[in-house]
Amino acid sequence: MKIALGADHAGFRLKDEVIAYLKQEGHEVEDFGCHCADSIDYPDYALPVAERVANGEADRGILICGTGIGMSIAANKVPGIRCALVHDLFSAKATREHNDSNVLAMGERVIGPGVALEIIKVWLETPFSEGPRHRNRIGKIKGLEEKFAVHP
Ligand code: RB5
Questions:
Q1: What is the rounded distance in angstroms from the CA atom of residue 143 to the CA atom of residue 60?
Q2: N or C: which end of the chain has fewer CB within 10 A?
Q3: Which atom of ligand 1 approaches the CA of 71 most closely?
Q4: Distance of alpha carbon 61 from alpha carbon 83, whole angstroms
Q5: pTM as predicted
Q6: Is 65 considered catalytic here?
Q7: CA-to-CA distance for 125 and 31, rounded, in angstroms?
């Protein structure tokens, strides 16, 4: 898979571990930074990852900040993005099956790399369940995007 990644100053260390894991697993990785502990603003790093996934240039995105919360809020502002904040294996599987999430957010201050890499493995391997009720609900999310879209 082609996977876009982004992190802020509270998540770049875990991002680097995730990138090493993804490459080892044979995935193509695009790293949008950041690369050091200098304080930066997470929306600036969520945006390029979310855009990449929304326009089809990446299959999935992974975003990491201190809690994962800021990254998930920012990414979910981009139409077409279904970003799931995940810190456990049950949710990693459920959000693929039920929400067809295309971006994963995690917090480096919440979980360690061992759990994070297990979550990523499950999240990448679990298919969308394709059930009509889940399709219908995702259709309603798209309806929300259209309702609040600003048309020039
Ligand atoms: C940075 O201090 C922190 O606020 C950020 O990484 C993230 O946790 C925000 O949601």
A1: 22
A2: C
A3: 10
A4: 9
A5: 0.97
A6: yes
A7: 21
151, pLDDT greater than 80: no
Instruction: Tell me, in angstroms, the distance from the centre of ligand 1 to residue 103's CA.
Output: 18
Q: Which residues contact 51 (CB under 8 A, 6 or more apart)?
A: 78
Of residues 109, 111, 77, 116, the one with CA closest to residue 9: 109
Task: Sheet with 60-65: list strands edge to edge.
Answer: 28-31, 2-7, 60-65, 103-107, 83-85
Amino acid at 139: G
Q: Is the CB of residue 67 below 6 angstroms from any atom belonging to ligand 1?
A: yes
Q: From the candidates 9, 34, 65, 83, which is the catalytic residue?
A: 65
Tokens describing residue 27? 């995935």
Share of the chain above pLDDT 90, in %: 97
User: In 121-130, which positions are buried (b, 16+ CB within 10 angstroms) versus exposed (e)?
Assistant: ebbbeeebee
**Domains and their CATH numbers in the chain:** 2-148 (3.40.1400.10)
In the predicted model, what is the mean pLDDT of residues 11-18? 98
pLDDT at 93: 98
